[in-house]
Write a structure and sequence with these properties.
The protein has five helices and eleven strands; from the N terminus they run αββββββαβααββαββ. By secondary structure, it is an alpha+beta fold. Helix 3 packs across helix 4.
Amino acid sequence: MKVFASIFCLFLSITVSAQSIDTTHKDTSVRLFLRDAKIIADKPLVVLNGYIYKRELNINSDSVFDIELLKGHEATDLFGSMGLKGVILIATKKFAIKEYQDKFSTLCLDYKKYLINHKNDDSDLIYVLGNQEHSVNGYPAELLKELYEIPLKKIKKVAFLERDNKYNVINHSIVVITTKK
């Protein structure tokens, strides 16, 4: 972990600050400021949610889902000469949620309809993955990571069981994801 932090500091100039709004309400969230993340010879390429970012980047650290550093051939194979000084890939939680929702929606029309009717809010759903039941309420990091990282080609089926309001047999709608071996 120390190595990751050291490498990250070498690539990027970070300013961490806590800001207060007023004396009665203080915002204690940490904000990351990525200054001058331009494609120039001495700076790494910054990619936020799949898009190359050329301006100052101001991200609330609570919204960050994943940060990945690419160096050497790994960076240049994906980004060509723009990746010569490394690449910093940043994914936000909102992006990760949309990615897995889009992935599962392609495999299950009922799930897609549910998301449309609930404005993409899946916080009331129960996900069953690998014979384990998970609730996304609050989006625990482990579940979000599992749902986001399942490759589409590895998913065998996505089944959606709608909440049973008439007989109250099912208290929550359920998404069952089965994977190929």
